[in-house]
């Protein structure tokens, strides 16, 4: 009913509006004791009807007069009055700007009626917690709409009740949250402080009284209440930001507001301080625009305290193993800290702050997790430090290079990130590149390209010699990694992306030689595995060397001008026989075949049209293996080949022959009972391949006999309940139709 009113109300004859309204009001009165969810949906239906039904004048007055005298009807009356202001700006309703303005004016006119009702409800509620929650939610909704008279509200007992509830230690979590939400809505509503001065003063003084209650919540380890208080404190600072910046320490610019946020920053849970990040961003932005040294100096001490608190929050657990995670919640928090530090560092002075942080490491002997967190903050600000003739930076670089072997992996990882941010210092101190220790430090212990990303292109002459050590360092590091019990694949790949990034920045004539040397170790490993007898009990799994080759090809992207031979072309042609033999040997193993196809995919992408010599033998082998074993990754690899060569006149017929040959076993597989449902990957990759043909050489496919069955299977697969497969089918059909419309 709610959805019909939201989306199709215009279909209803005008003379039936009143009867629908009366029916809905009758329903909500009869069903008020059922599930709250039903009451909410009916309340939304009534609110949406009232907003669209222009003939229902003064709906608030009508509802209050009809239901306010019956205590049992108050809960659903409050529910309607809560959702009504929320729905005014709903995108689901088809109402124009003029009607919205008319509604807001009408609600503003009757807002005092609502406040009087809420006061009556408070008197009747007594200690009924559920009723108080409904009252606070309703009040917050009207604050959010911005129609309450601020002078009237400043003297309202509702406001003092809110702070009374928030000050009491015994307040339940649900009621505490409702009261906090309401105060935040009130603070948001008075963003224009000057025009709402009486209410602004009351809210300002009320929030400042909550510090003791916050400390009590911390003592009781009640995290929900702590988070609520921090939200309220943050909203207070957001509302009075202009006053804080323009008149710091005076009136509504009282800096006790910042003290409240810094108290929250001292809480051991990082989720608490994270609530205030947006305010600190905005404060930094305002101060940067103000550009007043006197005002900046007032805030310097506050920002210093914040940075020290953030460094503490960035500490990993003492029992953490390995490198810091970057994709979990804590990793994302650290990234946000890094961004915030970069935005605020101008207030403290990057050189001074960097030197102070380094001094804490140099003068003391902190635990590894403290060291790592300090290095992380230093990496955030290193770029903003003047890197020319700065002895502290040189000393830091020297300290990182000479880290002892026993240092925690996370410390080494973050120190390498720091070196990456100090690329100018590295350039000015090439003596460090000559030390094998820096190469070993980076390559053997997890250089994932963090420093490689900062290398200039092309590589300066004094840094080209660096690559001579890299294949040896990679070889020694991979030997070391093989000794780790049950190593994870990601760990076994660590040295390669960074190496490939350096490789791609060498002069073209050197890339081929160095790439060959880098790949040789993996090719030797594959040859050794191929020569092993399956019966000797040793593992013949080639996935690790295949994955390493894939990573090398994926990250080696040199800039090649028109007419130049791609430097990787020769190397890929040389290793093709080994890849081909590996594919044949393991043709029945889907996991290994997928790794082979992935390696070939990146090899083809690496050299582009330079891999033309491989096209015929590769396609022949793909078709032969696919006839026996329907691995869908061959269809995916086929789509890559069509993408690269589909516009080449001489390749089109060969690619079409490949498609037709791959389709025969594919259609046989899909014709089995529940074939589409059982093989969604095959459907996905088949239509990815067909879509590439439509994009690159549509006429070739449209003229072929295989087009009709492909289209029939596309229509059959439109009902397939598998996200990726269905998406590929729809993209194929869309591209097919679009090509016909857009291309004569």
From TrEMBL:
UniProt domain Exportin-1/Importin-beta-like: residue ranges: 36-182
InterPro entries xref list: ARM-like (IPR011989), ARM-type_fold (IPR016024), Exportin-1/Importin-b-like (IPR013598), Importin_beta-like_NTR (IPR051345), TPR_TNPO3_IPO13_2nd (IPR057941), TPR_TNPO3_IPO13_3rd (IPR057942), TPR_TNPO3_IPO13_4th (IPR058537)
GO CC terms: cytoplasm; nuclear envelope
Gene Ontology terms: biological process: protein import into nucleus
SUPFAM superfamilies, per the entry: ARM repeat
UniProt keyword list: Acetylation, Cytoplasm, Nucleus, Phosphoprotein, Protein transport, Transport
Domain of life: Eukaryota
Subcellular location: Cytoplasm; Nucleus envelope
Function: Importin, which transports target proteins into the nucleus. Specifically mediates the nuclear import of splicing factor serine/arginine (SR) proteins, such as RBM4, SFRS1 and SFRS2, by recognizing phosphorylated SR domains. Also mediates the nuclear import of serine/arginine (SR) protein CPSF6, independently of CPSF6 phosphorylation. The nuclear import process is regulated by the small GTPase Ran that partitions between cytoplasm and nucleus in the predominantly GDP- and GTP-bound form, respectively.
Subunit structure: Interacts with (GTP-bound) Ran. Interacts with (phosphorylated) SFRS1 and SFRS2; leading to their nuclear import. Interacts with NUP62. Interacts with RBM4. Interacts with CPSF6, promoting its nuclear import.
Name of protein: Transportin-3
Source species: Hemiprocne comata
Gene name as annotated: Tnpo3
């Amino acid at each position: 009913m709610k959805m019909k009113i939201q989306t199709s109300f215009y279909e209803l004859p005008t003379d039936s509006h009143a009867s629908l309204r009366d029916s809905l009001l009758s329903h909500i009165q009869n069903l008020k004791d059922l599930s709250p969810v039903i009451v909410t949906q009916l309340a939304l239906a009534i609110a949406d009807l009232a907003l669209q039904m222009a003939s229902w004048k003064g709906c608030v007055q009508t509802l209050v007069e009809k239901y306010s005298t019956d205590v049992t009807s108050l809960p659903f009356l409050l529910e309607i009055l809560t959702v009504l202001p929320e729905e005014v700006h709903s995108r689901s309703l088809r109402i124009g700007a003029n009607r919205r303005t008319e509604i807001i004016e009408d609600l503003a006119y009757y807002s005092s009626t609502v406040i009087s009702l809420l006061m009556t409800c408070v008197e009747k509620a007594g200690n009924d917690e559920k009723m108080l929650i409904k009252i606070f939610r309703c009040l917050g909704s009207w604050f959010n709409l911005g129609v309450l008279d601020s002078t009237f509200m400043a003297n309202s007992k509702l406001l003092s009740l809110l702070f009374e509830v928030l000050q009491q230690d015994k307040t339940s979590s649900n009621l505490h949250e409702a009261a906090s939400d309401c105060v935040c809505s009130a603070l948001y509503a008075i963003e224009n402080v000057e025009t709402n001065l009486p209410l602004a003063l009351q809210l300002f003084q009320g929030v400042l009284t909550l510090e003791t209650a916050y400390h009590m919540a911390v003592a009781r380890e009640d995290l929900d209440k702590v988070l609520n208080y921090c939200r309220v404190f943050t909203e207070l600072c957001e509302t009075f930001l202009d006053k804080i910046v323009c008149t710091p320490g005076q009136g509504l610019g009282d800096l006790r507001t910042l003290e409240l946020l810094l108290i929250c920053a001292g809480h051991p849970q990082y989720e608490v301080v994270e609530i205030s990040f947006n305010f600190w961003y905005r404060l930094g932005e305002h101060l940067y625009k103000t550009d007043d040294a006197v005002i900046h100096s007032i805030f310097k001490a506050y920002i210093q305290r914040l940075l020290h608190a953030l460094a503490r929050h960035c500490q990993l657990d003492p029992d953490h193993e390995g490198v810091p995670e970057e994709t979990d919640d804590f990793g994302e928090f650290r990234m946000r800290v890094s961004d915030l530090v970069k935005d605020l560092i101008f207030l403290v002075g990057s050189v001074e702050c960097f030197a102070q942080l380094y001094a804490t490491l140099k003068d003391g002997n902190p635990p590894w997790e403290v060291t790592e967190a300090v290095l992380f903050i230093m990496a955030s600000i290193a770029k903003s430090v003047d890197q020319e003739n700065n002895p502290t930076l040189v000393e830091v670089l020297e300290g990182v290079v000479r880290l002892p072997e026993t240092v925690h992996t996370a410390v080494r990882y973050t120190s390498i990130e720091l070196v990456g941010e100090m690329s100018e210092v590295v350039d000015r101190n090439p003596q460090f590149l000559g030390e094998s220790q820096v190469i070993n430090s980076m390559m053997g212990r997890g250089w994932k390209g963090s420093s490689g990303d900062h290398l200039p292109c092309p590589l300066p002459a004094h840094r080209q010699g660096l690559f001579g050590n890299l294949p040896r360092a990679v070889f020694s590091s991979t030997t070391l990694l093989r000794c780790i019990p049950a190593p994870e694949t990601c760990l076994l790949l660590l040295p390669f992306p960074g190496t490939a990034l350096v490789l791609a920045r060498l002069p073209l004539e050197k890339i081929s030689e160095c790439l060959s040397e880098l790949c040789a170790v993996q090719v030797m490993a594959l040859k050794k595995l191929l020569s092993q007898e399956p019966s000797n009990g040793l593992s013949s799994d080639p996935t690790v060397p295949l994955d390493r080759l894939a990573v090398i090809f994926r990250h080696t992207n040199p800039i090649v001008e028109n007419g130049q031979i791609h430097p990787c072309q020769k190397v890929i042609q040389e290793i093709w026989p080994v890849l081909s033999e590996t594919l044949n040997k393991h043709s029945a193993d889907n996991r290994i075949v997928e790794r082979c196809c992935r390696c070939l995919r990146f090899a083809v992408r690496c050299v582009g049209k330079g891999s033309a010599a491989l096209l015929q033998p590769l396609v022949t082998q793909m078709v032969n293996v696919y006839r026996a074993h329907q691995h869908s990754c061959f269809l995916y690899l086929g789509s890559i080949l069509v993408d690269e060569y589909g516009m080449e006149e001489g390749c089109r017929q060969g690619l079409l022959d490949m498609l037709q040959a791959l389709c025969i076993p594919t259609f046989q597989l899909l014709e089995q009972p529940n074939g589409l449902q059982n093989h969604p990957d095959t459907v996905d990759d088949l239509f990815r391949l067909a879509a590439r043909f439509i994009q690159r050489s549509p006429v070739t496919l449209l003229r072929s006999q295989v087009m009709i069955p492909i289209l029939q299977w596309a229509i059959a697969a439109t009902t397939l309940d598998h996200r990726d497969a269905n998406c590929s089918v729809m993209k194929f059909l869309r591209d097919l139709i679009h090509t016909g419309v857009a291309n004569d």
